[in-house]
């Protein structure tokens, strides 16, 4: 399994970005392993889906971003999915600690949690809101970097779409920051830059999601995707040109993305034998959590391993934890969220055409541990 890129534990992973920013702002107890240097304000812009390999492959479409790609990439963590990565960034912890261990994962008895909508989903795909029943602060109880920043006197804020206000993922991963709702690239840039004009040291996180959207719909590297990457390039260059002294802009991503040809898909809903002994199937096509019925885990493991073969790797949940895929620490409250079987794909994906019809049609996917999905940029610009 030499294609697997394990999460970094040496200070250059996505969970190290905000702790490094706090160190650069002079907050005690943190180390700057990313290389911000001493500064008065840090702006962190996350471009959803802008993997390191994709950026380098399409450098001509993003010349300014490509010119900044001089340092080694970061590793996103596991799985390489937005929910997990946003929580890793916001808490400064790997998924095994913060507990957002996938696109969907076992939460309440008999149901999967879908953190992007904070809904529970049963085995048939039916959803219900659980924001009141399972509060995000209970599901993810660790302090966020923004809470720690505010306690230290740093002006902590986030510039994210207005519709993210009060959502489960925002409360779980980004609480403690002032939310500045944005609607387009212009006010996203303006809100980031406004953080450089505060009376106190400032930390501002911004989110841009359109590149990921077009990668899913049209495929990474498609013409719409490349045109969107060029738009991101101009956005970042515009922010960089307006950075005052003692300010640093960091451009990062939550994961990369790979094309998903229909010929490479395994459709579980068309192969019911793969659901034999399975009580819940979580995760996403490139990284599946398989939760077995009592006593059926070994049979499920063997069946999935035989079916996926050389297209991926199928491990028990215990093996995945022992290999450090979820980070060095996985407490008991999180261990039950990890599947009895983990299936990560090198090629193709495992979809559900009936239960997950929309997700199954996406032309770009992510979640696994290939270099294309795991490596993300850390592009720094100083004012």
CATH topology of the largest domain: Alkaline Phosphatase, subunit A
Strand runs, count: 20
Mean pLDDT: 97
Tally of individual helices: 16
CATH class identity of the largest domain: Alpha Beta
Shape: globular
CATH homologous superfamily label of the largest domain: Alkaline Phosphatase, subunit A
Using the CA coordinates, give the radius of gyration: 20 Å
Helix content: 25-40%
What is the makeup of the main sheet? 6 strands, mixed
Multimeric state of these chains? single chain
Strand order of the largest sheet: 8-7-9-1-10-20
Structure explained in plain terms:
The protein has helices at residues 17-24, 52-57, 63-68, 82-91, 95-98, 136-139, 145-151, 168-173, 185-194, 210-218, 223-241, 297-308, 317-322, 332-335, 357-360, 371-374, and strands at residues 41-47, 74-75, 105-106, 112-114, 119-121, 127-129, 155-161, 178-182, 202-208, 247-252, 258-259, 265-267, 278-284, 287-292, 312-316, 341-345, 349-351, 364-365, 375-376, 378-382. The protein is of the alpha/beta class and 383 residues long. It has 2 domains: 14-258 and 369-382, Alkaline Phosphatase, subunit A, CATH 3.40.720.10; 262-364, Gyrase A, domain 2. It has a 6-stranded mixed β-sheet with strand order 8-7-9-1-10-20, with helices on both faces. Strand 3 and strand 4 form a beta hairpin. The longest helix has 19 residues, at 223-241. It is globular. It starts with 16 loop residues before the first helix and ends with a strand. The mean pLDDT is 97.
């Amino acid at each position: 399994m030499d294609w697997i890129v394990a999460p970094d534990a040496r200070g250059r992973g996505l969970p190290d970005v905000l702790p490094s920013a706090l160190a650069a702002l002079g907050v005690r107890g943190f180390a700057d392993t990313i290389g911000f240097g001493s500064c008065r304000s840090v702006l962190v812009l996350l471009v959803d889906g802008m993997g390191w390999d994709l950026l380098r492959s399409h450098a001509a479409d993003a010349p300014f971003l490509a010119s900044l790609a001089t340092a080694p990439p970061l590793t996103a963590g596991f799985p390489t999915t937005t929910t997990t990565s946003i929580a890793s960034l916001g808490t400064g912890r790997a998924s095994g600690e913060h507990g957002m261990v996938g696109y969907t994962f076992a939460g309440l008895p008999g149901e999967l949690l879908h953190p992007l909508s904070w809904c529970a989903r049963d085995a048939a795909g039916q959803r219900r809101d659980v924001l009141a029943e399972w509060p995000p602060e209970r599901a993810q109880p660790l302090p966020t970097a923004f809470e720690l920043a505010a306690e230290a006197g740093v002006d902590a804020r986030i510039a994210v779409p207005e519709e993210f206000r009060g959502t489960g993922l925002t409360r779980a991963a980004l609480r403690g920051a002032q939310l500045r709702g944005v609607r387009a690239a212009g006010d996203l840039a303006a809100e980031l830059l406004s953080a450089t004009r505060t009376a106190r040291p400032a930390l501002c996180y911004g989110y841009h999601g359109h590149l990921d959207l077009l990668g899913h719909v049209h495929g990474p590297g498609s013409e719409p995707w490349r045109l969107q990457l060029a738009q991101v390039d101009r956005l970042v260059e515009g922010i960089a040109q307006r950075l005052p002294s003692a300010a640093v802009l960091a451009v990062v991503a939550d994961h990369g993305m790979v094309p998903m040809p229909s010929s490479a898909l395994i459709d579980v809903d068309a192969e019911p034998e793969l659901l034999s002994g399975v009580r819940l199937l979580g995760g996403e096509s490139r990284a599946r959590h398989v939760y077995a019925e009592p006593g059926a885990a070994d049979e499920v493991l063997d069946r999935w391993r035989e079916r996926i073969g050389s297209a991926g790797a199928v491990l028990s949940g215990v093996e995945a934890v022992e290999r450090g895929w979820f980070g060095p620490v996985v407490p008991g409250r999180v261990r039950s969220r990890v599947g009895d079987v983990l299936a990560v794909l090198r090629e193709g994906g495992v979809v559900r055409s009936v239960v997950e019809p929309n997700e199954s049609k996406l032309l770009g996917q992510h979640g696994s541990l290939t270099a294309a999905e795991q490596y993300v940029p850390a592009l720094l610009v100083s004012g």
